[in-house]
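Researcher: Quick test of sequence recovery. Tokens follow.
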């Protein structure tokens, strides 16, 4: 997701994104390195970023994840 402040004053935006979670030992879900740093996990699978945008600036807030399955786990 891209955020753009087209106004003339700084803006602070709070962005919430969700990702899958797993309670199975045979499936591991981890946040991908390409995700925007400083996202705070506020609940399992729910992350929050607080972004301050200067006027005329765009910023990307990305969240990616990797799933690894082992054993007999099937998607």
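Model:
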């Amino acid at each position: 997701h891209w955020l753009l402040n087209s106004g003339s004053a700084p803006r602070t935006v709070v962005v919430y994104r969700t990702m899958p979670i797993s309670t199975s030992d045979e499936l591991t879900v981890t946040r991908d390195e390409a995700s925007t740093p400083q996202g705070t996990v506020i609940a399992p699978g729910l992350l929050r970023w607080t972004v301050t945008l200067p006027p005329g600036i765009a910023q990307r807030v990305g969240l990616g994840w990797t799933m690894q399955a082992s054993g007999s786990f099937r998607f």
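The chain has a mean pLDDT of 92.
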